[in-house]
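QA checklist item 7 of 12: single-chain prediction sanity check.
[x] sequence parsed
[x] length recorded as 261
[x] structure emitted
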Amino acid sequence: MTSHPIAVFDSGLGGLTVLRALRERLPQEDFFYFADTRFLPYGDRPETFLRERGVLIAEALVARGAKALVIACNTATAAAAEAIRAAIEVPVVALEPGVKPAVGLTRTGVIGVLATTRTLASERFQRLVGNHANGHRVIAQPCPGLAEAIEAEGPDSAAVAALLDTFVAPLAAAAADVVVLGCTHYPCVSAAIARRMPAGTVLLDTGEPVARQLERLLAAGNLLGGGEGRLTVATSGAPASVIATVDRIFGQKLKIEHWEP
């Protein structure tokens, strides 16, 4: 299976921020990126739906030939990671907000977490805070509509700016000095978030740690290498709209195919 691709999936295009880190660290791997835009946004959907949908996608990606799977979505991880790992036999890397590294970086003892409503309400996130907060104050700030606005309006839009004004202000007021970007869309607006926080605030996303973990798992399974750096991108929605979104968010044009698991 060494020559088989690595599958990466997200509800939309935010996972491309993770894919970028994966391709930088593993340039000889082939990747298949799936954006489940037909069901975007994931953030406010029932946990049962997300778990069932996540397992369906994972099984379809393995049937397509994936040698490993990256769940490039914090919401899907929170709802479905355990079920996905139980359902498939290939290595699985899942995202979760970087509370643990944030604890090691904070000086004020106050950490902000920006994420979807579903991620922050999940039992998995509550365990994460319980296991790693170690007495630090963790401000969990839900950001309903932010990921959708980034995709639909663009990172520099007035709609995104208005949402950031609302969601970032409580973290700045509480003197958080580390902000965890708990959704793969949010690195697209990291500069705008930083402008709304005091100078010196550290912003954490999970692309690079996920890439390191994937590399470790592939090496342990003797699955490293064998590709040619190819990238295939697919969506369950309309390819034309996804092409426009990728161009708007990332400034590049990609060929997008339609694929429905």
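[x] summary fact logged: The CA atoms of residues 23 and 202 lie 24 Å apart.
[ ] second reviewer sign-off
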